[in-house]
Amino acid sequence: MKYTARIISRYTCDTSGVCSALYELGGMTVMHDPGGYGSIYATHDEPRWYDSESLIFVSGLTETQAILGDDTKLVQDTLQAARRVQPKFISLTGSPIPAVVGTDFEALAFEIENELGIPTFGFDTDGMHTYVAGVSKALAMVAQRLCQPGQSKLAGVVNILGVTPLDFSINGSAEALTQVLSDRGLTVQANWAMTSSLVQLEAAGAASANLVVTAGGLKAAQILQDRFGTPYVLGTPYGPNLTDTIVTALNLAATTGENQSVINVPQDTGTIIIGESLTALSLATAIFRATGRGATIICPTESETEILAYGCLTIRDEDDIESYLHHADTIIADPMYQPICPPNAKFVPLPHEAFSGRIYHSTMPNLVTELPEFLAAQNLD
Description:
Blueprint: H1 14-22, E1 28-31, H2 36-45, E2 55-58, H3 63-68, H4 72-85, E3 90-93, H5 96-101, H6 105-116, E4 120-123, H7 131-146, E5 157-161, H8 165-168, H9 173-182, E6 187-192, H10 198-202, E7 209-212, H11 218-228, E8 232-234, H12 239-256, E9 260-261, E10 271-274, H13 277-291, E11 296-299, H14 305-308, E12 312-314, H15 318-324, E13 330-333, E14 346-349, H16 353-356, H17 367-377
Parallel strand pairs: 1-2, 1-3, 3-4, 5-6, 5-7, 7-8, 8-9, 10-11, 10-13, 11-12, 13-14
């Protein structure tokens, strides 16, 4: 069976991606599911769960409701909860059972919004896609529906798009993304979507350029460009060298109005990096600049063609990934990939919250500020 994992873990699903992207924005998210997804999200996917509050509910879908296609309880429970907690917006997310019975989340969202007057989004997540798809849908909806028009462009102001703990954990990386840009003279309007409020995201049109740091932020960047004419830059600021280049690219994009990319790494099958496309490509670029060593990127998650064009291989099946690793001499990946890696290859552990959850949380490096130390510790410098 294709895409069935015997040994390695699986990536966080799209439903959790939506919840993670919207977690800090003051909205109310409803998982339409019997309850299992809520438990998985709380205990595995969301490192902020015990430290900060968010309005996340589970519908408690029953077998009878699923068989009969009865959405009345979901709508009424959502209306009742929303009247009580008064969220800034409401999002409805799916799971495998609603996907099988064909639940129309957009129609339900339309009905709830008409009743309450609160912006309501319906996401057709089904648990069969990775978190990247969910993050992308959630941030795109914010860009399309909640960002306010009429913002005057401000020189030196940028947004950072695609930031969730599923890619950056809660080890200071989100704060560091803002800090390293601020240290180089830029002002971050909003960090989508960690450490920033919904009010800050709503004013995103004031930015002169946007920085896309994961594939989950690209669709939002494209919408902001369509709505406000804001160009974007592709790249994650890993290490001072790449960060300097990103700042130059942001200033150039703001001046010319043209999108930019800082990803530039020669393909080399001797070194393989497995992970989310844009962060992995950025890490490979940073390593190339520091060592002259190229790399091949294996991306087991969804990604936009625009990012994949820079040199990612989309390989999702465990057997296919394992066979591709046979000739590698260095593999950089989450520790849960190690059992399918050849024993003679140097394995460099790089924990990924969206893949191994909190198991390796204490060893997750902040590559934004700690890249030189990471390379030195792994003898990659």
